[in-house]
Automatic annotation (TrEMBL):
<dbReference type="InterPro" id="IPR018788">
    <property type="entry name" value="Proteasome_assmbl_chp_3"/>
</dbReference>
<dbReference type="InterPro" id="IPR053720">
    <property type="entry name" value="Psm_Assembly_Chaperone"/>
</dbReference>
<protein>
    <recommendedName>
        <fullName>Proteasome assembly chaperone 3</fullName>
    </recommendedName>
</protein>
<dbReference type="Pfam" id="PF10178">
    <property type="entry name" value="PAC3"/>
</dbReference>
<dbReference type="GO" id="GO:0043248">
    <property type="term" value="P:proteasome assembly"/>
</dbReference>
Amino acid sequence: MAPNSPLVPSISLSYPAITKQAASTMDGIHTDVMSTAFSDRIMITITQGGRLAQWIHISLDSPNPNFADQYMPSGDDEDALLPMAHLSPKTLLGGSTSERETLGHLYATQIATAIVTRNPEEKRTVLVGLGLSKFEARREVFYDTVDLVMKCL
C-alpha cells in the first residue's frame, strides 16, 4: 500500500517516546526517576539501587463521564494534596505485603492526581514502577519523591 493511501491511517506519534530523567538523594539514598510518555501510556519508574519491585497501573479516565467534573480539583487549598477519588490503582506485579501494596497505591494515586491536576485533559493510563529500598510512610520522603516525579513530567 502506498503511504498516502486512504487505507493507511495517518497517525502522528512522536518517535522515539519522550523520556525524561531526574535524580536526588532522599533520606540518604540515591533515587532515580524516569518518565516515558507513550501515545497511550505514561510510564514512571522510581528506583533506588537500580531495582524495581512493584508495578502499579492506574487509569486516568473517569468511570462515568457525566460526573467527570466532580473529580476535578475544586481549587480549595486544603483538598489540593488529596488524591482524586475516581483513581483506582491496580497492582500488576509485586506488592508482596499489604503494607507495600497500600503504600505503592498511595504513590501511584498521588502521582496520577498530580498529572491530572497539571493537565485535566490527560486520559492516558499511568504505569508506575517502584523500587524503593525502604518502604516506609514518611511524609517528607513521600512528598520529595512525588516532587521528583513532577520534575520529569
